[in-house]
Amino acid sequence: MALPPEPAAPEDAPLLVACALGIERLALRGSARPAAATVLRTGMGPANAERAVLAACSTGPLRRAAVVASGFCAGLAPGMHPGDIVVADETRADGTGTRCTEPALLRRAVARALPGRTVHAGVLAGADHVVRGPERARLEATGAIAVDMESAATLRSALAAGPRPVAAVRVVVDAPEHELVRISTVRGGISAFRVLRAVLPAFHEWHRSLLLPRR
């Protein structure tokens, strides 16, 4: 059976970038970008993300917006490093998956915006708490490559408010060999902030591509 076509953004669709933390919003709003995007701070956790994104996308100028969930995440696969980028094919939480729109297109845009950075593809898991230690291995065994608390809820809520393109792009801030509980990972956090600060132009490239007529 053929998969349904990927949703294209309406010609007048704006771009909404949702993140949880003030430091993530600071990085995304400080990005050099070719055009404006709305950067929404939702607050931490899936419940806050669901509430904020559903309210933003249900009425007003963002009701047709393409939505990108962004910010930091925890890597699950051995060998991942702070500053690596995860462009999700799918977000997954509570047994429910949400397919992302044109993730390969977005990965190419991210690679152009941040040459030399490692870009990972795969499933981005959702959790309602910070994941550490053995729980990382359990999540990786489900097929996920990274985890955060808001992306799955963000995409699910955005689509509940109406059909639209959705994506999730996260920057690894800690990984199995680089957990944040270690003092040595402070440098990794700075690296992740700088990467997040530089990634927003890729979102615009992806968004502009979705606005082009499909052949």
General description of the model:
Helices cover about 35% and strands about 25% of the residues. It has about 220 residues and is an alpha/beta fold. β1 (about 15-20), α1 and β2 form a beta-alpha-beta unit.
Structure characteristics:
alpha/beta; disordered N terminus; 35% helix
Show the helix and strand layout.
Blueprint: E1 15-19, H1 22-29, E2 38-41, H2 46-58, E3 66-75, E4 85-93, E5 96-99, H3 103-113, E6 119-126, H4 134-141, E7 144-148, H5 151-160, E8 166-174, H6 186-211
Parallel strand pairs: 1-2, 1-3, 3-8, 4-6, 6-7
Antiparallel strand pairs: 3-7, 4-5, 4-8
Helix pairs in contact: 1-6, 2-5, 3-6
According to DSSP, the number of beta strands is: 8
Radius of gyration: 16 Å
Pattern of helices and strands: EHEHEEEHEHEHEH
Q: What is the averaged pLDDT score?
A: 86
Gross morphology is globular
**Quaternary structure state of the chains depicted:** single chain
- Strand order in space, largest sheet: 3-7-6-4-8
Percentage of residues assigned to helices? 25-40%
Strand % is 25-35%
Summarize the structure in short:
This protein has helices at 22-29, 46-58, 103-113, 134-141, 151-160, 186-211, and strands at residues 15-19, 38-41, 66-75, 85-93, 96-99, 119-126, 144-148, 166-174. The protein is α/β, with parallel strands linked by helices and 215 residues long. A 5-stranded mixed β-barrel has the order 3-7-6-4-8, surrounded by 5 helices.
